[in-house]
Amino acid sequence: MHLRVSEGWWAALGAAGMSHERWRALPRTARRAVTTGVWLAILLVLIAFFGVWKTTALALAAVVALLVVPVWTRLPYGKFVVPLAALGLAVAYPYYFGSMPQVPIFGPFPQVSTMVVMMIFTMMALGLNFVVGYAGLLDLGYVAFYAMGAYMAGWFASSQFAHQKLDFGAVGLYEGWSGFHISLWLVLLMAGIATAIVGVLIGLPTLRLRGDYLAIVTLGFGEIMPQIARNGDSLFGTGFNLTNGTNGITPIDGPGFGNWAEQHLHLPANYLNAANFDSLYLWTAIVLVLITVFCSLRLRDSRLGRAWIAIREDETAAAAMGIPLMRTKTWAYATGAFFGGVAGAYYASYKSGAFPDDFFFNISVFILCMVILGGVGNIWGVIFGACFLAYLDREGLANVGAWFSDHLHRQIDVPKYEFGIFGAILVITMLFRPEGLIPSQRRAAEFHEGVHDEPLYDAETAGA
Amino acid sequence: MSKKVSLLAFVGVAAIVAAVVAGYSGVARSATQVTALPSSACGPIVYKGSGKPDFIIASDLPLQGAIRKQTVQISRAMIWALQQKGWKAGHWKIGYQSCDDSTAQAGGWDSAKCATNARLYASNTSVMAVVGTFNSGCAEIEVPILNRSHPGPVAMVSPANTYPGLTKKWAAGEPNKYYPTGRRNYARVVASDDFQGPADAMYTKSLGVTKVYVLNDRQVYGAGVAGTYAAAAKKLGLKVVGTAGWDAKQSSYESLAQHIKSSGAQAVFLGGIACNNGAKLMQDIKSVNPKIHLQMPDGFSDPNANGAVANGAYISVAGQPPQGLKGFGATFVKSFGKSIGATPNPYSAYGAQAMLVALQAVGLHGGDRAAVTRSIFGLRINNGVLGSFTINSSGDTSLTPITIYKQQGKILKPVKTLIPPASLIG
Amino acid sequence: MATNAAPVTSIAARRTVGSYAMPAIAALLVAALVLWLVINFTKGPAYFFTISFIGLTNGAVYALVALGYTLVYGILELINFAHGDVFMLAGLFSASMIDGVFGVTTHSSTGYLVLAIVGSLLVAMVACGLINATIERIAYRPLRSAPRLAPLITAIGMSFVLEDIAIGWKGPGYTAVPDVLPKGNVFSVSGVTYTWEKFIVVLITLPVLLALIWLVQRTRQGKAMRATAQDRDAAAMMGINVNRTISFTFLIAGALAGAGGLVYALYFGQIRYDTGFQLGLIAFTAAVLGGIGNLPGAVLGALSIGFIQAYNEGLNWHAPGSNWTQSIVFSILILILVFRPEGLLGERTPEGG
User: Fold this and answer.
1) By the CB < 8 Å criterion, does B409 face chain A?
2) Which of B85, B256, B291, C97 is the most exposed place for a label (fewest CB within 10 A)?
3) All chains having 3 or more CB pairs closer than 8 angstroms to chain C
C-alpha cells in the first residue's frame, strides 16, 4: 500500500512536469529546501487559519528551515550545529515561549513547568533506552527505579527522619528544622547510585530468565515497590516509619548554590525561593539530560555498548565470543537504574514530594512507549518520543480535548483515554514501524530481517 | 567558499534568534490591571462588578473525576459568596478564578498539578489569597510553596482539609515542615480529623457497643481518621478487636468480613472514602454480619456513592447540618439552594465561608500579601455562613461540632451533633 | 586406581551441600506454612472450612482466566497481556446482557434465571472467543519474524486499548451487576455454611472445565493443539495447519475468558475497566505457579492462590492481613519465576516438553 501511494503521487507530479528522475537529479540542498519549504508553508497556513497567529511563527519557520535544509554535516564540526542549536533553543525557551503562535489542535506551546517535566521524562526514557534499546531486555518495572530515586530524595532532603538532625550543604533550611538535609546535588548522585545498587540486586536473580519472564518479574517488582512505599509507615509491624505510608514524604528541599554563591556569583541560593524557579529547574534539567546523552553516546560506542548490541542480536553467538552475559546485562540494568534514580530524585524535588500514588504500572508502560515510539536505541528518537509523549500527558491531550469541544462540538474527554491512545501507539508502531519514528539503522534491520532469538512463528510453518 | 556559507548561516541564525527575543520583549503588555492565571490550570476570571478587578482570589479544587459534582458546587458557592459581598473586599474589587488540581488520568488530585498550581499562585502577584484545597494531600504540597513566595506568603483558606498535621503537631516534623519561613499562611474553616474520629467513637459507644473493628483504606485521610477513632475508642473503654486495611482494587472482601465476624465485633468503622470500593466492602461485610453497625466518617457522605446497603449506617460530617444553620447560613441554604435547585451539599457552605474569610482578610490589607496572611490568624467572623467563630493562631476554627447522620435512602438525616471533649483529642 | 577414589567422593560431597540448600529452604517454608494452617484449623475448624470455601470459589474464578493464559503460552510462548482485559469485557458484556437483554431481577423465576445465565454464558463465550481470535489475527500474527519481545509489547498496547474501550462504553466507575443469584445456604453443618452463590460458581465452572478437557484430549483440534504445543515444526510436517490451530487456541482461550467474565459478574457483583488488569496478574501468577503451559497446573495454581488470599485475610492466628495480600501474590510470582520457573507441575511448552 505504501508503494502504491508513492507511485500515484509521482505519476501525478510527472504529468505536471516534475518526474521522479528529474527530482532525483536536483542537488540535495535544493531538494531539502523544497520539501522543507512545502511542509513549513502548509504548517504556516494551518496556523494562520486554525491556530492563533503571531509573526514569530515566521521566525520559527525560518529557524527550522535554517537547521534542516543545509547539509551541516559536510562542514567541519558541522554535526554539532543542529544539536547545539536545539540546545540553545531549549535553554532560551523561558524567554520566548510566550510569543510562540498557537498550533491548531494542540494549542499553545507548553508551559515552562511542562518543559521541566518533559526533560525529566526524557532522562528516564534515555535510562530505559539502555535496557530496552541497547541491551534489548524488556523492562516493565522501570517505575520502581523512579520510585527509589524519589524516596532517596525524600529520605535525605526532607524532615522525614525528624529525630535526626544532619545538615550537609543543604539550602533553604528553616528555623526548627530536623531530619537529614543533604545538598540536593549530592542527593541526586546518591539516589542514582542507590538505585543502581537496587537495580543490580533485582537483576541478579532475574536477568537469567527468558525475555518474557524477565518482563513479568520486572512488572512484579514494579508493583511491589509502591506496596512497600504504601505500607512503609510501619515496616513489618515494627513501627519504623520508612516511607510515611500513603501520606508520602513532603516537602522536599530544592537545589541551590547557597548564599555565598548568590552574593558573589549571582547563582540562585535556593531554587524554591527564586522568582523564576521553573526556569532554573528547566536549565538544571537540561544539564542533567546533557549528561545522560553524553553517557549514552559514549557507552554506545564503547566495548560495553557493543557487547549489549551483540547480546541483543544473538545471545548464543555473543556468549561464544566470550561476552559475560549476566554481567553485561546487569550493567545495562544498573545504568538504566542510575539514570532513573537521578530523574526520580529530581522530579521529587520539583514536585516537593514523594507519594506512593505516583508510582504505578502505567508509568512504566508510558516510558516504554516513549522509547518505542521515538526509536528504540536511537538517542534523538528517544528524546523526541519522550518530549512528545510527556507533553501529551501533561498538556497536549487536554488541549486536544478542548479543541474537540470547541470546533467539533463533541465533548470527548480526551485525557481520560490517554493510556488507550498510548496503547494504540504501541500496537501501531509495533505493527508498522517497530524501529520507531527516528530509528537507528541497526535496529531497523533487526526488526525487518529478524534476529536469532526464538521468533514467534517459524517462517517455514507459515500457512502450512 | 564553505567557510563563508557557514559564517553567513551562523549570522543568520543569530539574527533570527535576536529577532525572536526582541519580538518577545516588544509584545505590549496587556492593559488589564490583573494578570489572569493561565487557562491550562484555571478557568477564566469571573467578575461581575463594575470596572475591572484589582486582585484575584483563586480556588484550588479537584474538578475532575468522581468528586466533580461536589467540587463544582463548592466553586459556585464561592461565587455566590463573592456576589453577596458585591465582588469587593473592603474597597478593592476582587475577581475569581477556579483552578483545577486534578487530572483526568488520575481521576482526582495530582501531586505534580498541585505543585504547578501553587507555583502559579505564588508567582502571580495579582493573586491575593487561595481558597482550597479539597484534599489534604494536595494542601501538604501547596502550603510550603505558597509559604515561600515573594513578596510575601500567600494565604490559603481551606474549606475541606481535615488532616490535623497541617496546623497542629501530628507526625514528626509537622506542622513546621509546611511553613519553611516560620510564618503561618494556612487556615481552615472545618474541624480536623482529630475531632471527627472521637465524635464517631462517642457515638458508637452511645449505641451500647463494646467491641469494634476498625478498617482504613490505606490513604492519607482514611488512615488518619481511623487512627483517631481507634485512639478515642480505647479511651472511651471500647475494645478495638481488630484493625485492617482494605485494598480498593480487590474483588471481594468476604474473607475480611468473616474475620470481622469471628472477632465478635458489634460495630465496624470504615475509615476512608466511598470511591475506594466502599460499596462492595459494605456489601460483603453486611452479607456476613447482617446485624453489625456501620460507622463512617465524611468520606462516605454521599448516599448515592454508598448505595442501599448503607441504609441505617451512621455517617459523621464536620459542622452543623445545613438545616441547622442559622442567620446568614440559613440565607445561604435558601438562596444558594434556589440557584442550584437542590439542597446544598454540606461542603458548599464551607466553600462559601472560606471565601468570606479570605475576603475579610483581603479587605483589611488589600495588596499586601504578607499582611493579608497575618490578619487571618485571630480573625473573628461574625454571622458567617457557618455562624460566628474565630480562626485561632494555628489556623484552626473554633467551631468544632461534628454531626452524626443516618443514611435513609438518598438523604442523610441528622441524628446528633457532638462536640468532642479535649480529653479525647490528640 | 587409588588416586581416583578420593577426588570423586570429595566432589560429590561439595555438590551435595550446595544443591540441597535450596530445596531444604523450600521444604522448611512449606512445612512452616502447613504448620500455620494446621494451628489455625485447630483453633476453629468450622471457621477454617468457611474460609476455605471462600478460597475455593475465588480460585475457581481465577482458574477460568488462568487457563486462558496457559493455553496461549503453551502454544506460542506469548504472555497475552490483553487476556485479562478480554475477561473484563466479558464481565461488562455479561452485566449488560443479564440486566438489559434478559432483564433479570431478584423476582425472576428460577427457570428464567437459569435461561438467562446459560444464554449469557453462550453469548459471552462466543463473543470473547471471536474477539480474542481477531486480536491474534491483527496484532500478533503479522509479527511472526519479529524479535519475541515485539508481540509482547503489542499485547501490552492491546491491553490498554481494550481498557479504554471499556471506559468509553461504561465509564470509569464500577458497573454494577444486579444481584440475582439466590441467597441462602446449600448446606449448613455445625457452623460451616456453603451458600448457593458459591455453589453456582462451581456449577458453571465445572462443566466448562470438563468441556475443555474433553476438547483437548478427545477431539482432533485438541490433538492438533497439543501437537503444536509440543513441537511446532513436527506438527507442521505432519500436515497440521499451524495458523488455524493457533487461531483456534485463541478462540478457546477467549471463550474461557468469556465464561470467567460471566461468573465474576454474577458472583462479585461489579466490574470496572481495570478489573481485568488486577485479575489478570493474579491469574497469570496462578498459571505460572502451576506450571505455565500445563492445564491442570493452571487450575491447581489458581486454587492455591485463591486459598492463599482467603487464608491471609481470614485466619486469625498470625495472619499477615489484607494489607499484604497483593505483595504476597507478587512475591510468589517472583519467587516462582526466579527459583522454579517450571512451576509446581512442570512446564509444557515447545521448549520444556
Assistant:
1) no
2) B291
3) A, B
Q: Is the dihedral of CA B319, B325, B330, B334 positive or negative?
A: positive
pLDDT at C164: 92
Query: A75, A147, A129: which is closest to A345 by C-alpha?
Result: A147
ipTM for the predicted complex: 0.83
> What's the whole-number average pLDDT of chain A?
84
CB contact (8 A) between residue B112 and residue A351: yes
Q: Give Cα separations from A142 to A126, A436, C247 (angstroms).
A: 12, 20, 33
- Chain A residues whose CB is inside 8 A of the B106 CB are 357
In this structure, are residues A208 and A219 in contact, taking their beta carbons and an 8 Å threshold?
no
Question: Whole-angstrom Cα distance, residue A259 to residue A180?
Answer: 20
For the entire predicted model, the pTM comes to 0.85
The residues spanned by each domain of chain B are: 3-191+323-395, 193-318+403-424
Same topology, domains B3-191+323-395 and B193-318+403-424? Answer is: yes
Q: Chain C contacts of B67, Cβ < 8 Å?
A: none
Q: How far apart are CA C155 and CA C81, in angstroms?
A: 5
**Distance separating alpha carbons of residues A117 and A389, to the nearest angstrom:** 11
Residues of chain C with pLDDT under 70: 1-19, 347-353
What would the mean pLDDT of B53-61 be, rounded to a whole number? 93
The C-alpha atoms of residue B166 and residue B162 are separated, in whole angstroms, by 8
Query: Pick from A416, A424, A463: which is nearest to C167 by CB?
Result: A416
- Determine contact: B27 vs chain A, CB below 8 A: yes
Q: Are B334 and B80 in contact (CB under 8 A)?
A: no
The tally of CA atoms less than 13 A away on the side-chain side of residue B86 is 8
CATH homologous superfamily for the domain B3-191+323-395: Response regulator (3.40.50.2300)
Q: Percentage of chain A with pLDDT > 90?
A: 33
Pairing of the two strands C270-271 and C175-176? antiparallel
A29-71 pLDDT tens trace: 888 888 888 888 888 888 888 877 888 888 888 888 888 888 7
Q: Residue C117 burial (CB < 10 Å; 0-12/13-18/19+)?
A: buried
Q: Which of 374-433 (A) contact B at CB < 8 A? A: 393-395, 397-398, 413, 415-416, 418-419
Do B250 and C316 make contact, defined as CB atoms within 8 angstroms? no
* Inter-residue contact A280 to A105 (CB < 8 Å): no
Distances (CA, A) of C64 to C202, C278, C294, C295: 11, 15, 13, 11
Query: Residue ranges per domain, chain A?
Result: 7-74, 114-366
The Cβ-side half-sphere exposure at A190, using a 13 Å CA radius, reads 15
Residues in chain C, total: 353
10 Å CB burial of residue A5 (0-12, 13-18, 19+) is exposed
Is residue B81 very low, low, confident or very high in pLDDT (cuts 50, 70, 90)?
Answer: very high
What ranges make up the beta strands (E) of chain C? 175-176, 185-189, 192-195, 270-271
Per-position b or e across B359-385, b if 16+ CB within 10 A of its CB: bbbbbbbbeebbebbbbbbebebeebb
Q: Contact B247/C322, CB-based, under 8 Å?
A: yes
Measured in angstroms, the CA of A219 and the nearest CA of chain C are apart by 9
- The nearest CA of chain C is from the CA of A206 a distance in Å of 6
Compute φ and ψ for A180, nearest 5 degrees.
Answer: -85, 125
Spatial separation of the C-alpha atoms in residues B239 and A77, rounded to whole Å:
78
B6, pLDDT greater than 60: no
**Residue A239: its pLDDT value, please?**
62
Chain A's closest residue to C228, CA to CA, is A461
- C-alpha–C-alpha distance, residues A168 and A176, integer Å: 16
In CATH terms, the fold of domain B193-318+403-424 is Rossmann fold (3.40.50)
Average of per-residue pLDDT values in chain B: 86
